[in-house]
Fold:
Amino acid sequence: MPIKNNLSDTNTKATMANLINDDMDFEIRSLDSMCINDSQQQHPWWYNFKYLTIGIVFGIVFVKAEIISWFRIQEMFRLQSFHMFGVIGTAVVVGMISVWLIKKFSIKTIHGESISFHPKKFNKGQVYGGLLFGMGWALTGACPGPLFAQIGTGALVISVVLVSAIAGTWVYGYFRERLPH
Amino acid sequence: MMEFLKQPWTWYVAGAIIGLIVPALLIFGNKHFGISSNMRHICAACFPANIAYFKYNWKKEIWNFFFVGGVIIGAMIATVLLNSDSPIQVNQHLASDLAGYGITDFSGTVPKQLFSFESLFTLRGFIMMVIGGFLVGFGTRYAGGCTSGHSIMGLSNLQVPSFIATCCFMAGGFIMANLILPFILRL
Structure:
């Protein structure tokens, strides 16, 4: 498109560069299917306290339902207790119904944005990574959420496990291109 | 009311509340339920080291830090205010099995005889905490999610890859707990 005005030309270029950067940024971020949703709205930082509140509820449930107990996880993997299967199963059913309702009635966020869903693509990482994570889960008795909750209950030694998990994440990022996906 | 809250919560109550976190996050801000990606954001914020996977604007995912911050605070609240004072009821088979490895203290969320700063410097403690943690971080990112991102959010959205991932989480756990862990506990 012909742009005569020099000033607007520079502006357009700047916007284009921003767009490309944003696209790149989005592309890298969305390598993780969890980070795809991108809001166009700008909110003050303290709006994030709504997520803190939801997190608090989650943390209380973790402790009170003994989901963060190493013993409950061992019972689950040894098929000695129904508890964890019941928790995860109920959560999945409730989650499924909720997502279905949100889609069916095109429910919007409290800020009026439409809620988006994205299909996940299969790759071999879900198998290899899944098996490795499963082993770590049985060893530590914690998936990532409970790691934080265990620290919250005062088991400070679990911060070692957390640091190690962050290191594992970093090493994955480092070798990502060379791993089979 | 407080007495009621102080008892251990049954599975369907806990499951229902966790399930409701999925629509809560979606409705409060179009966010997909997931915890493990915050460890990626920590890497991106603190040590990106010019690795492409960590070069993104992590500030857009800052909500996730608030979310896990809430999990830590929630766990503190539950421990301080809603403590039932009675140790958890461990399955008898598990209890007698663990006693064979010298694990007899069932009072904590994690067995104190395995997870402590002293045992960190034993081979058994090192494998359980350091290697275990590493597998959790490496595995979840490799799989693209954890129990929350895949097993709960992914399955809620009827995603086949999440189902495959969940089956592999379980398979890995079964292999470790039944076939490998007995050897580690013997160390």
Remarks:
- Chain A has one domain: 48-176.
- Residues 136 and 142 of chain A are 8 Å apart (CA to CA).
- The first helix of chain A runs from residue 6 to 29.
